[in-house]
Amino acid sequence: MDINQLNCFISVAQTLNFSEAARRNYVSQSTVSRYVSDLEKEFGVQLFTRSHRDVIITNEGKTLLPYAIEIVDSLKKAKTVIEQMHNGGQGKISLGCDVTSLSFPTKCIADFNARYPGVTIDIHQLDEADRSLAITGGEYDFCFMPRDMVPENSDIESIITHYETMKVVTAKNYKFKGRKSISIREIADEKLLLLSESVAPIVYMEIMDLLRTFHISPQIENVFNDLVSLYVSSSSGIGISIIPDSLVAYASNQYTDSFAIDDVDTSIAYVMAWGKNISNPAARLFMEAVKKYAKGDDNEYGL
Questions:
Q1: Do the two domains 91-163+268-291 and 166-261 of this chain adopt the same fold?
Q2: I need a surface site. Which of 116, 124, 292, 301 has the fewest CB within 10 A?
Q3: Phi-psi region for residue 119, left (φ > 0), alpha (ψ -120 to 50) or beta?
Q4: What pLDDT does 300 receive?
Q5: What is the DSSP annotation of 181-216?
């Protein structure tokens, strides 16, 4: 018994016409007759009664029909799943995200998950460990981070995904209220709340460099290893924070206000990085989702 025999049997049972069954299955009528005859021999029963005018399905044929349909459907599903596994449509993607890299991965993951719901997506925050090993050692398929955090390693490829600009976040109705932007000099006397250098080294260094450029001595009130503590402190008025634009969206505007910095370029380039030896078939599919949104003006796609 094979799937071709079952397909032809199903077609004959549904149409009660051997010629139509042959047309549907792109075979000759004699082939359909042979397939049905082979099934009848295998089961030891007659599945159809035939005359010059009519084809009538027997009770045995009616009994077999739902099982035949179920078997064919199961085989089709198995074939689809196996093809998806081979092409990456099933399996698992592991992503490492820098704490300041949230908006871009979010939309890529949403797009990918809608198209390939069979792929498990595992997301972790990149810690302070060796990021070169995290990228090339197989712990993550892809890592999202500021470009300047990517280690110099010939086994690592990357592509620019987007740019982030810095914004100032204050408690609601602070003295800048009603404005869309402020100048960097206006925060010279403010107490600063920052993400720690160990957690967000590029953002921390960019802020320090920015203040030094304008000869501002930073008054750092506190540094944090997590966004929740930073947001709570900012919204409570303990100080003001400077964070990448996309992180502002994760702060509640019920308790905070945000302002662009209007007199200096604060943009930071972000990338997605991966090891050249990546072998996960689902990775190629994830790259397609990334291509839709990435700036793409860094290294060429290496997958």
A1: yes
A2: 292
A3: beta
A4: 42
A5: EE-GGGGTTSEEEEE-TTTSHHHHHHHHHHHHHTT-
- Tell the CATH topology of 91-163+268-291: D-Maltodextrin-Binding Protein; domain 2 (3.40.190)
Q: For the structural domain made of 3-87, what CATH number should be given?
A: 1.10.10.10
Q: Any residues with CB less than 8 A from the CB of 188 and at least 6 apart, and which?
A: 214, 216
With H, G, I as helix, E, B as strand and everything else as coil, classify residue 112: helix
Strand partners, 157: 274
- Are the C-beta atoms of 144 and 270 separated by less than 8 Å? yes
d(CA 139, CA 246) in angstroms, rounded, equals 26
Q: Kindly state the helix (H) or strand (E) to which residue 69 belongs, with its residue range.
A: helix 59-87
Closest Cα partner for 159 from 244, 286, 248, 245? 286
Are 156 and 135 within 8 A, CB to CB? yes
What does the block give as tokens for 113? 């998950």
Tokens 């620019």 locate to 160
What are phi and psi for residue 209, nearest 5 degrees?
-65, -40
What pLDDT score does 132 carry? Answer: 67
The parts of the chain modelled with pLDDT lower than 50 are 298-303
CA angle 167/128/281 to nearest 5° reads: 95
pLDDT value at position 299?
A: 45
State whether residue 126 is helix, strand or coil.
Answer: coil
Enter the CATH code of domain 166-261. Answer: 3.40.190.10
- CA-wise closest residue to 223 among 208, 210, 250, 241: 241
Q: Going by C-beta distance under 8 Å and a sequence separation of 6 or more, which residues neighbour residue 222?
A: 193, 194, 233, 238, 239
- Quick one: pLDDT at residue 84? 60
- pLDDT tens-digit map of 33-50: 999 999 999 999 999 998
Where in the chain are the domains? 3-87, 91-163+268-291, 166-261
In the Cβ-directed half-sphere of 222, how many Cα atoms lie within 13 Å? 14
